Request: fold
Amino acid sequence: MKRMKLVLVGNGMAGVRTLEELLKIAPDLYDITVFGAEPHPNYNRILLSPVLSGEQTVDDIVLNPLSWYEEHGIRLYLGKAVARIDRIRRCVVAGDGTEVQYDRLLLATGSLPFILPVPGKDLQGVVAYRDIADTEAMIDAAARYKHAVVIGGGLLGLEAANGLRQRGMQVTVVHIMPWLMERQLDEVAGGLLQKSLEARGIRFEIGAQTEALTGDDTGRVCAVRFKDGREIAADLVVMAAGIRPNTALAEAAGLHLNRGIVVNDTLQTVTDPRIYAVGECAAHRGIAYGLVAPLFEQGKVCATHLAHFGIGRYTGSQTSTKLKVTGIDLFSAGDFMGGEGAEEIVLSDPYAGVYKKLVIKDDKLISACLYGDTVDGSWYFKLLRQGRKVGELRDKLMFGENNLGDAGHEGHSRAAGMADSDEVCGCNGVTKGTICKAIKDKGLFTLDEVRKHTKASASCGSCTGLVEQLLMFTAGGDYSAAPKTKAMCGCTDLGHQAVRDAIRDMHLLSIDAVYQSLDWRTPNGCASCRPAVNYYLISSWPKEAKDDPQSRFINERSHANIQKDGTYSVIPRMWGGMTSAAELRRIADTVDKYKIPAVKVTGGQRLDLLGVKKEDLPAVWKEIGMPSGHAYAKALRTVKTCVGSEWCRFGTQDSTKMGQDLERALWRMYAPHKVKLAVSGCPRNCAESGIKDVGVIGVDSGWEIHIAGNAGIKSEVAQFFVKVKTPDEVLEYSGAFLQLYREEGWYLERTVHYVARVGMAHVKAKVLDDAEGRRALWERLQFALDGEPDPWFEFDKAQVDLRQFEPLRAVVPIKEIA
Amino acid sequence: MNDWTVVCRVDDIPVLGARRVAREQGAAVAVFRSADDSIFALLDRCPHKGGPLSQGIVTADGVACPLHNWTIGLADGCARAPDVGCTPKFAVRVADGQVMLDAQELLHHAVEAATV
Reply:
């Protein structure tokens, strides 16, 4: 097939990122040509500030070296600006006459600095702060001159001022607005920022209006004059008063403009669908974004469309800002002005230099402005993007995520304060140094990329916040955070909820039907989506959708726990933790007979037989003669009990019996993740009900039910749910809650995360307030579990493929062939 | 010249699944069956920590190791980027619904790979 021709105009971060995304999914679809006006390969424009301040070099910030273009067969024209687009002949023409045909054209021309229209703006020594050439001109000036004036006290201007100051110049920032960074900070935070920059020797002219730049007799700028007549010396003037989308080329080609090149949700220009625009030059729903995260989200959608996967839609982004001035911590996101109905929570500690303002509206966080302590910036930003209700967190919100409990990290939450050798990811043993190096060397921007390259945060995820902080510190403030709805995996752009909804609404009954109806990118999915989709099918349509063992993780396919050496462990079910001499004798005999190397008592009050060979599993199950413990599955694990009123002198209720009843009612129950229960016979709580998915505590007058506890990665105390009188009610309420979780939970989401996502109020409304709904939930669970087979004995019914336990051997003895 | 020996029928391997071929010496060989009935054979050891690939989830062109979820290409035995490493592959022939491996390879190929 003849390849189509794609031309990219603008060799910057947005355009090249789009190409990278495109090459990932459709490497052979296009012949690609790139025009770049600058003489450099694609570099990280965000990091110009560290280059200016001398903390990094130009080479450090190159994202795609020339060899990258070569490897991918991309024709690259550097230092060659495109002069016009001929939409009739479908070609672009460069200034020197170079002409290239296109089938698809991608405009990523970025933006131009706004130059104040004042007399003297064309003098030597007046520069913008936009690209490597500007940066080099500033570094050069810093070596030869003394006085610098930066016009504009926004993010860019302050970073420029700081860099020039660090290079030894006397710097004055001229800012016409009443305080610094007025679009990101309120007056208090702006004032704090000014104070700490003043302490570094930067001077400010706040509210001053520039009237003219005056030059000396060599034609170089020598002073800035204000409206009030004052003048200050200036050998270098940096214009940092904002940027404007660079749209001249598009305008000349007759493309519709409105504060940028107007594009639709697939990033096609509204005028000509063959032409796409991404990045700072594009106006999407009236907004031209100037930060990198939205540009990357755009690039991803644009790439899928260019690759003929027309499924992605870009629906806009929320942005956050972090000032990249070493030693000053400042974070801002959202609309801090709030408007009507907005409420503010403010923490101000001027002595420690800390100021935090959170703005809440309609029970949602809409803005966070942090100064001096920005550790929780990424967490606030996540809450903001998710639009999650924060009512339940409100009293603790100001004190940050760490305050909500983070047992796994012993307070190691301040990424900046950690040493390079400190471990960030405990699961995979990844240090801060390794992560920062990978971010720098490989040009990583997203959490997913860091996970792929370093494994940090790729297992349990409890260090995700830390890794996000490291991304912020290392890659620059506006790294690309995960989008609002996280795709299930690389096979689709749909999130878990969308897939669940589609399975229910479209009555989909097989994995193939899901993949076809929802335009999956891969024919057979991957190891992430297949088990999830399989679970959604069987939980949405019990008795209708057929379980697919090949889409289950090995533990649920072979009904035992795989161990690191490839052997398995077997945990027989002991109802409520009770066993007998006969059971123990059979277990002991089986351990001897099959030479099982280890026997251990588990945390859930069961016996774990470790090191069983796969070939021996069916025989071991048979000889033990006890039901499957499901200790290998995303399912009900165990119900832990104390001895209760039968034996205990403090017991108020028969917790053992209650636990056994619960376990018999719920065993074989598959769920989004593992489910653990406990029943204690009195508030002394010997069965540790406080850290279980459902924890039941007997009290004199009945039973308390607590839900959504967790003893895992992050200890979470279960929340009180309801108090009931009878054992039957315990069954009904617990079962209804678990069925709600089964129907609404996302795959691999524990109850604690599920309840945090949907809110306790939702769960209470469904299970407590709606008696009919509760009974219906409990009935649906019983319907789903009715007749479910025991996979250790009913092989056919449970679809246990017995062939897996038999190794194959060459049919003809090899020595006879040889 | 290959020295083909029958190990099983195509139908003996589950679709999007695998079987293990035990050997006199060395780790077993995993034989995989894709959705379109293509058959692949790799040493049954992940290049990462030696996990049994035959127990993983099989996709169109790869298998996810059950221990730490590395994805190994069925055709080349190599880990998907950014993971690095390859497991030895074995020649396979399918005729009349029979799956055959090379007897000499079964005897000698990658027998020295250390067991974990």
In short: Chain B touches chain A at residues 3, 5-8, 12, 14-17, 19-22, 24, 28, 31, 34-35, 49-52, 55-60, 64, 66-67, 69, 71, 82, 101, 103-104, 106-107, 116 (CB under 8 Å). The beta strands of chain B are 4-9, 17-21, 29-33, 39-43, 57-58, 62-64, 71-73, 89-90, 92-95, 98-102. The first strand of chain B starts at residue 4 and ends at 9.
